[in-house]
Amino acid sequence: MFRSARDFGTAVREKRKALGWTQTELAARSGTGERFIVELESGKPSASLKSR
Q1: pTM across the whole model
Q2: Angle, nearest 10°, between helix axes 34-42 and 5-19?
């Protein structure tokens, strides 16, 4: 379990890098925008994980 949005964002970034993906590629593969990935990885607490 993650204690904060920052911890979750760090985990996402580490996994993305381990896969050799760019933020742009992760955004495309996940059906989101690159800005969302940037905010998610930076730990922005208002980055919503709800489906749209």
Answers
A1: 0.84
A2: 120
